[in-house]
């Protein structure tokens, strides 16, 4: 039983719960990947789905639980960490929500989806309003097993889907740290021109694609003054967040580029709090994507 009032809940990625917990105040309890807090909800960078103003519902049966949820709204997804069989039986009585993998490019769902869980056998914790439009924040795409040379392309699929904006035909894009070419593959498929810059070469089949140019070198040596205009700046390069921030800031201040998607990578037990520095750049988002690993993603869509 929970004695304190729960004002927010945060679902984190299984392997990255520590940085999520470091962001939060007034933690009441942790249920596997779900962190309960008595503080008002915040934009937690490491949360893949934030539950806003969750409420406890007392139930006396499986049917009662399903009926009470349906009275609140139609769409619900279950986060199950205990009482799995009982929770599954309740969810089966709720309207079905498709779990088909997404086909990129795609639109975001138009209907919100609430989240719920059993915190005891006869208590549901429910939140009609959540930060994600997908079940438990899961952006699952139909994968291409032949085209891209690595699975890193899924991060770009998710980033562009989230902001509902894509590189357009003929746009000039820089893919910094592009080897072996997963992001370059996505960008050129959308019809944009890609300059991939990396010390390591692109995968041969990516380098042979139309609209793709490879330049060997240090990505941090390129400057806005080297180009008339860049429509999109992409970066999945391995570096310390401080170095990436200084480089992005230079590009942003130059006004030579408006659209950015850049991975903020962490090494070891790094100070994760520096990532909030990226939010000082006007119009920016910093997100832990469902497809991220030990990293966050900086996005600015101009």
Q: How would you summarize this macromolecular structure in one to three sentences?
A:
Helix content is 21%, strand content 27%. With 302 residues, it is of the alpha/beta class.
Features:
single chain; 302 residues; alpha/beta; Rossmann fold; 2 domains; five-stranded antiparallel sheet; elongated
- Look at the structure and give the mean pLDDT: 96
**What's the domain count?**
2
Strand content: 25-35%
Quickly give the CATH architecture of the largest domain.
Answer: 3-Layer(aba) Sandwich
CATH class of the largest domain: Alpha Beta
Reported by name, the CATH topology of the largest domain is Rossmann fold
Any idea what the shape is? elongated
DSSP summary: helix tally: 7
Could you walk me through the main structural features you see in this protein, from its secondary elements to its overall organization?
- The longest helix is centred in the last third of the chain and has 14 residues, at 241-254.
- The relative contact order is 0.12.
- This protein has two domains: 8-137; 153-301, Vaccinia Virus protein VP39 (Rossmann fold).
- Strand 2 (27-31) and strand 3 (34-37) form a beta hairpin.
- Helix 2 packs across helix 3.
- The mean pLDDT is 96.
- The protein has 302 residues and is of the alpha/beta class.
- The protein contains seven helices and 16 strands.
- It has helices spanning 17-23, 62-72, 84-92, 153-163, 182-189, 204-207, 241-254, and strands at residues 8-12, 27-31, 34-37, 47-52, 55-58, 76-78, 114-120, 123-127, 129-130, 172-176, 193-198, 212-216, 230-235, 257-265, 284-287, 295-301.
- It has a seven-stranded mixed β-sheet, sandwiched between helices. It has a five-stranded antiparallel β-sheet with strand order 2-3-1-4-9, covered by helices on one side.
């Amino acid at each position: 039983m929970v004695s304190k009032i729960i004002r927010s809940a945060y679902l984190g990625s299984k392997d990255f719960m520590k940085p999520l917990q470091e962001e939060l105040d007034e933690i009441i309890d942790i249920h596997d990947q779900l962190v309960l807090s008595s503080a008002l909800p915040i934009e937690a960078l490491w949360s893949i789905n934030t539950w806003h103003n969750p409420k406890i519902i007392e139930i006396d049966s499986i049917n009662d639980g399903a009926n009470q949820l349906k009275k609140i709204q139609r769409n619900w997804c279950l986060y199950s960490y205990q009482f799995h069989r009982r929770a599954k039986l309740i969810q089966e009585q709720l309207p079905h929500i498709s779990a088909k993998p997404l086909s990129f490019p795609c639109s975001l769902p138009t209907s919100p989806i609430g989240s719920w869980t059993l915190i005891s056998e006869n208590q549901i914790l429910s939140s009609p309003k959540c930060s994600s439009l997908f079940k438990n924040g899961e952006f699952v795409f139909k994968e291409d097993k032949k085209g891209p040379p690595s699975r890193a392309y899924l991060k770009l699929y998710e980033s562009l889907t989230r902001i509902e904006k894509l590189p357009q035909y003929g746009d000039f894009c820089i893919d910094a740290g592009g080897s072996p070419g997963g992001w370059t593959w996505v960008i050129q498929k959308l019809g944009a021109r890609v300059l991939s810059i990396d010390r390591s070469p692109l995968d041969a089949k990516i380098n042979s694609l139309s609209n793709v140019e490879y330049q060997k070198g240090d990505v941090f040596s390129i400057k806005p003054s080297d180009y008339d205009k860049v429509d999109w700046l992409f970066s999945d390069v391995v570096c310390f967040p401080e170095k990436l921030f200084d480089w992005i800031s230079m590009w942003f201040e130059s006004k030579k580029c408006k659209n950015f998607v850049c991975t903020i990578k962490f090494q070891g037990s790094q100070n994760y709090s520096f990532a909030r520095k990226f939010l000082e750049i006007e119009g920016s988002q910093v997100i832990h994507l469902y497809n991220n690993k030990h990293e966050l993603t900086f996005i600015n869509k101009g």
